[in-house]
Amino acid sequence: MSPASVIGAGTVVRGNVEGEGSLELFGRVEGDVSMSGDVLVAEGASVLGSISAAKISVLGAVQGDLRGSEAVLVERGARVVGDLSAPRIGISAGGLVRGNVRTEGEPSAAAQRRPVAAAPVAHRPPQVALSPKPPQVAPAPLPAREVATTDAVHLVARSKEPERRPPPPVLPSLGKGAKGKKKKDRDSDD
Amino acid sequence: MAGTVIGEGLSIEGEITSDEEVVVQGNLRGKLSSTDAVSIGPSSVVQADIAGQSVSIAGQVTGDVSAPERVDIQAGGRLVGDVKAARFTIADGASFKGAVDMEV
User: Fold this and answer.
1) Cβ-based neighbours of B87, under 8 Å, separated by 6 or more
2) Are B80 and B50 in contact (CB under 8 A)?
3) In whole angstroms, what is the distance from residue A146 CA to residue A1 CA?
4) Other residues' Cβ atoms within 10 Å of the Cβ of residue B43
5) Nearest to B3 among A11, A14, A31 (CB)
6) b/e code A132-166 from CB counts within 10 Å (16+ = b)
7) Which residues of B touch A4 (CB under 8 A)?
8) Does the beta-carbon distance from B20 to A18 stay under 8 Å?
9) Any chain B CB within 8 A of the CB of A171?
10) Three-state DSSP class for A104?
11) Disulfide: which of A74, A135, A155, B3 matches A111 by Cβ 3.0-4.6 Å?
12) Among A10, A17, A23, beta carbon nearest to B3
């Protein structure tokens, strides 16, 4: 309906921006942004205020809360200081976030618990959490750790098994006699 | 391509400063200043003082307008406020109420 609005790189807006349609930010906004469509905070752009929109993509810097009715995507190189809330949240590798993350509008209780646990997001950036499926988005980092730990457990368990097997070398000593062979057979049958 | 476009559905309440071309097609209340050209589109409603290298008005503007180069009110445009510019044109069909200072 309306042409996309653009705040150019050389432009500073001090005040609130709201409206319909989408908005691309290359410059600086000191105030709140509220759009019915999508908002793009491009690389080099900065926003000092909260943003609410259908879908918010951030490649620049935002100091304020991000509220997306559809999605919030924090891309590589982005810096966000503020809370994120949306049904879908994606934080790419190299995107920095300091704040609480909540995937809202999800019936899954697990999807709501995990983000709370994941609140200190500072160490998340190295992990890619870009996922189209909402329930997996925020939890993604944690399962990754769990997998890592369970793998470690398996590795430990496997490494212990060979250690338990070495005792059987006792068998060869038993195996010197004929009885030992019979025992071996019994053991292998068991 | 214009540097900054305030689209039709957009409302800004506050101050805009820019060093590139600014096109306003939406609503603006506050202040607008640019070192480049400023264009106020036909559908826009602006309640702000406007300063630009040159200012073209096709929408409704309430506020003072100043430009070192020129100010043009297009047909259908409406300006209530004072104008300060080296050149100033009012097109047939435009409406204007205010004082003019052409730095004579």
Assistant:
1) B69, B70, B71, B102
2) no
3) 47
4) 15
5) A11
6) eebbebbbbbeeeeeeeeeeeeeeeeeeeeeeeee
7) 5, 7
8) no
9) no
10) coil
11) A135
12) A10
Could you read off the pLDDT of B46-75 as tens digits, one per residue? 999 999 999 999 999 999 999 999 999 999
C-beta of residue B82 within 8 angstroms of C-beta of residue B101: yes
Give the Cα separation of B65 and B67 in Å (integer).
7
Which is more confidently placed, A167 or B103? Answer: B103
pLDDT of residue A129: 45
Predicted pLDDT of residue A4: 83
- pLDDT tens column, A66-103: 999 999 999 999 999 999 999 999 999 999 999 999 99
A48: confidence class by pLDDT, cuts 50, 70, 90: very high
- The one-character DSSP state at A37 is S
Nearest to B20 among A10, A15, A35 (CB): A10
Which among B37, B35, B32 has a CA at the least distance from the CA of B49? B32
Region of B81 (left: φ > 0; alpha: ψ -120 to 50; beta: rest) is left
| N residues, chain A | 190
Q: Is the pTM of this model over 0.90?
A: no
As a whole number of angstroms, the distance between CA A53 and CA A66 comes to 8
Looking at per-residue pLDDT, the higher value among A162 and B82 belongs to B82
pLDDT tens for A149-178 read: 444 444 444 444 555 566 666 555 555 555
B8: left (phi over 0), alpha (psi -120 to 50) or beta: alpha
C-beta atoms of A6 and B16 within 8 A: no
